[in-house]
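Standup notes
- DV: blocked on the single-chain target, sequence here:
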Amino acid sequence: MRKALERSVRAGHPWLYRDALEPFDAQPGAVVRVTGKSGAFLGRGLADEGPIAVRVFTTVDEALDSALFARRIAAAFALRARVVPGDTDAYRLLHGEGDRLPGVVCDRYGAHAVLKLDGEAACAWQPQLTEWVRGPLAELGVESLLVRAGRKRSQTVTLAWGTAPPPELVVSEYGMRLSTSLWHGQKTGLFLDHRESRRRVREIASGLRVLNLYGYTGGFSVAAGLGGASHVTTVDSAAPALAHAEHSWSHNDLPQQRHATHAADVPELLSELASQAQRYELVVADPPNFAPSESARAAALESYAALHAAVFTVLASGGYYLAASCSSHVSQREFHASLREGERRARRSTQVLERWSAPADHPRLVAFPEGDYLKVALMRVQ
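- DV (later): unblocked, structure below
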């Protein structure tokens, strides 16, 4: 192991890549001891499959057992009790690497919770994990737990314990009612990391004509509606997501005539709107991950620049643009460079009003920059 890698482990980085280690044989989920070239102890973690060979849980020579998990879970729940705002019952309780529980995510949705496991190591510990969170969740009033394992099309969703949540669930965020499906929705049901982004939209939307691109279940749309937007259009390629957006709009008693949904491809729609000289005073664009791997980063930066340019074309003078990236392979600097490039292509002049990341229930380790994946910028066209 290289000295630089040893320093990284000691500092608290939770991933060890396979190509940086001496070959070893261990089943996913097996507890492994990590040592430096000299044989000195560096950490203890779980063996995994794929490029990430070991998920490091501790740099202290301690047992990786139920007591360690109990301490980490208790500390994570205590943090949420302090930082989650009122009138909110949908938020993240366990944030994987950020809570020093690599591969383990748990989100609360009112009386239900979802445990999302990333990697074969975490999946191997599924029976223990579902029981270790049971008591702490029950103290919050959570009555059931779903488990999501695997990725994308291979993902499975199973009921670990309790009574299954309904096909449609309505939760509260700053008092805003949001509809979702814990069985079929993306992530664990909602994009909970955009809670503060939605709050900001609600604060500035009064009287504005709003276009919500990649709108999913319409959280930004409802926030704009509750903020007094004159009209909101929600765009997504998935009709089921748009149905949830319409339900959320209704659950908040907002006038139906102030909301429209479009199942459409975003670049094509933006081109059509530009040709029709359509203009909006607020556009939100939170696209899917354009760079799921490092090899896709260059293409992703071009996609971001093209998206920004198209958005600037349909923004009215004085209008606002909330732009977001969820890709860990695109840095803050690169994302904001794509905004500058989009501005240049559209020949618009903009002001950056604010920049932010995920909220406090999504903590990031200083030693793990990959965990600081979300980038949000609020801009104004001059």
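- Follow-up: The longest strand covers residues 315-325.
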